[in-house]
């Protein structure tokens, strides 16, 4: 999924949504009304896209469901602030999901910088390779997806976040380590523990 890159509006020119190929006329009219600070249009804009954004964020924050609503609000605040820079080259939903993805990854980075998550990684807990169900495949399988969400919600926060970041957002351990200020070895150990814990819960819960 690609997010639409904002581009600065020219000084002195009234903000309007560009005539991008991806935008339906109804959608363009709505966005133009939002840019004019029309309160009803703004409420409709949020209402129209709230469910898919909420769904995306809640999947990515399974261990921290308590943070979902605040993060969704942040997504829409950023979108409304930057709507005049929306280039119209993608769908509005695609653009919003791009903002949501950045917000989710900001949270991953912030939480996984916490020293508490790495303080005990030198003990003898198992850290070898573990066979896991393919996370990307599980997203598209109804029952398996529900089970995955339940297990992620039961994991310690760091385990759930590191699995989501690695498998659903498809970042390498090297990238994750660089973005959190941790060593790659420490990130690999955290990820290995998370996989072990996930598998135990997966096998113990049944289908």
Describe the structure.
α2 (39-60) crosses α4 and α3 (68-82) packs across α4 (92-112). The protein is 62% helix and 0% strand. The protein is elongated. The two termini are 31 Å apart. Mean pLDDT is 77; it is low at 1-15 and 121-131. The chain contains nine helices and no strands. The chain has helices at residues 25-35, 39-60, 68-82, 92-112, 135-139, 142-154, 157-168, 173-180, 184-205. It has two domains: 25-112, Orthogonal Bundle (Rna Polymerase Sigma Factor, Chain: A), CATH 1.10.1740.10; 116-205, Orthogonal Bundle (Arc Repressor Mutant, subunit A), CATH 1.10.10.
Q: What is the CATH class of the largest domain? A: Mainly Alpha
From the N-terminal CA to the C-terminal CA, the straight-line distance is: 31 Å
The string of secondary-structure elements, in order, is: HHHHHHHHH
Assign the CATH topology of the largest domain.
Answer: Arc Repressor Mutant, subunit A
Named CATH architecture of the largest domain = Orthogonal Bundle
- Label the structural class: mainly alpha
- Rg measurement, Å: 20 Å
Q: Please give the largest β-sheet.
A: none
Separate helix tally: 9
Number of domains: 2
Number of strands: 0
Mean pLDDT: 77
DSSP strand (E) fraction?
Answer: under 5%
What low-confidence regions span 5 or more consecutive residues with pLDDT below 50? 1-15, 121-131
Shape: elongated
Query: Percent of residues in helical segments?
Result: 55-70%
Question: How do you describe this structure in short?
Answer:
The chain is mainly α and 207 residues long. It has helices at residues 25-35, 39-60, 68-82, 92-112, 135-139, 142-154, 157-168, 173-180, 184-205.
